[in-house]
Amino acid sequence: MKGGFLFRGWKTLTSRGFCSLNDKSLRVCVIGSGPAGFYTAEKMLKAHERAEVDILDRLPTPFGLVRSGVAPDHPETKIVVNQFSRAASNERCSFFGNVSLGSDVSLSELRDMYDVVVVAYGAESDRSLGVPGENLTGIYSAREFVWWYNGHPDCRYMAPDLKCTDTAVVLGQGNVALDVARILLRPTSELQTTDIAEHALISLQESTIRKVYLVGRRGPAQAACTAKELREILGMKNLQVHIQAADLVISPADEEELKASRIQRRVYDLLCKSATSHQGHDFAGQQELHFIFFRKPDEFLPSEDQSRVEGVRLEKTCLKANGLSRKQVAIGTGQFEDLDCGLVLKSIGYKSVPVDGLPFDKYRAGVVPNLKGRVLSGDQPENVNIEQGLYVVGWLKRGPTGIVATNLYCAEETVTSILEDINEGLIALRSGSPKPGRQGLLQVLEDKNIRFVPFRGWEKIDSKEKLEGQLRNKPREKLTTWDELLKVALGR
Ligand code: NAP
């Protein structure tokens, strides 16, 4: 175990004030420049006037999900980058883009160089369904599709075929599912003035998809989306919404669930309202959005030549109590039905990926075990260690849930833990020979011949994208390949 101490008998920290906090310099490294990373950096800089904060990201661009996850037709959610940019321009803060944790620099190297390391690299992979046919062409994770239309360089060449079918199936009913359904169905005239990637806009303009099925394994009382996002898609012009009236009948157990969650109640009420308001309308020629409840994917069906997906076999489900929890779970009934489609987007949740040296609980939502952000290690509950100087924040800490602002509270908690630990002397700050921090990192990168992108490099990308965007009446035209990004940022 590296620099840890036993959790057993470790007393709860009290807030005794942070009088001695700013006596010594503090070298902090935040790994990941999404909302969780930037909120943490901002709070550290404010709380400790001698803190020097370096933010690493494997991409040449900062802001994580704000750039690559938030839908292009939600510009208001992206305004927060102005606040993050102000933090980055603080003279005690530096950005190191194009630096990969694991391959370019290891966690153990960073822990040797910095007093505090905060892992904030989020969830860059996908849960899998584990049903036959999942690897057929035409099946993508919603994360990949979102990265594709948002111009993430790792999905630039994904090229989903939107012309081979009129039907897409989206599995899952969370907010990401609503995002991808909306982007597939929204008139492209409304997308062309957003920051959507050019290659995606062209593909959507040529798309023949006019029907989207949103499939949930549970019922309308359990749909995972939130009311604002649901209202937005239900209110789209020229969209025919289909909801089976029979699915809206709820049981006493559903009623209990709805009583316990105002969010779920509002979502359920909106679905009921939409089902009645769309009854008896003439919808000729309109796009269609179908909410399918109580169905779980059982198998993906290949085309005759086995070359791509041609449908999904769904098993009907019913809901069953789940021990003492109020939340019911979906159970298969053994009855099946097939849904034809040419595109499937699996929107069943993101997944974090572990790195060497980082404790990781792959069974529980793939999170880093932690106590209010302090990373815990140890196999057995009676033998838990706190990893000295190592902290976690964001989706790696709490699982892939919550909106951008959720990370504000999450960062607050982690930073409070850091400050408490400094105050209690649990982070050994050396006044005589401080850890090398930024100088050490620069040396390692130079030794390994790694060219990092500083914040100034990102600003060059930003200016170029905004300029290109102006020519097309868009807020920005994103650079979408690694080559282009590095060329503009580093001038190579
Ligand atoms: P999510 O909200 O957790 O939804 C996941 C969906 O996948 C649920 O419907 C879930 O059903 C279903 N699912 C999970 N495992 C499944 C399986 N094995 N088979 C079938 N269905 C399965 O996740 P998300 O949509 O990826 O969103 C992630 C977070 O980002 C959420 O907190 C979301 O609110 C947030 N977000 C917010 C916005 C926004 O504010 N505009 C936009 C995008 C994302 P069960 O409920 O039955 O498990």
Question: How would you describe this protein?
Answer:
By secondary structure, the protein is of the alpha/beta class. It has 16 helices and 19 strands. The strands form 4 sheets. Strands 1, 2, 3, 4, 5, 17, 18 and 19 form an 8-stranded mixed sheet that branches. Strands 7-15-8-9-11-10 form a 6-stranded parallel sheet. Strands 12-13-14 form a 3-stranded antiparallel sheet. A hairpin with a 2-residue loop joins strand 17 (370-371) and strand 18 (374-377). Helix 1 (35-47) packs across helix 13 (406-423) and helix 9 packs parallel to helix 11. Residues 1-19 have low confidence and may be disordered. Bound molecules: NADP nicotinamide-adenine-dinucleotide phosphate. NADP nicotinamide-adenine-dinucleotide phosphate binds next to helix 6.
Strand percentage: 15-25%
Average pLDDT across residues? Answer: 93
Catalogue the ligands.
NADP nicotinamide-adenine-dinucleotide phosphate
- Note the overall shape: globular
Core attributes:
disordered N terminus; 492 residues; binds NADP nicotinamide-adenine-dinucleotide phosphate; 16 helices; alpha/beta; eight-stranded mixed sheet; six-stranded parallel sheet
Draw up the topology in text:
Layout: E1 4-6, E2 26-31, H1 35-47, E3 51-56, H2 64-68, H3 81-88, E4 93-96, H4 107-113, E5 116-119, E6 125-126, E7 139-141, H5 142-149, E8 167-171, H6 175-185, H7 188-191, H8 198-205, E9 211-215, H9 227-234, E10 239-243, H10 252-260, H11 262-277, E11 287-292, E12 295-302, E13 309-322, E14 325-340, E15 343-346, E16 350-351, E17 370-371, E18 374-377, E19 385-392, H12 395-398, H13 406-423, H14 437-447, H15 455-471, H16 482-490
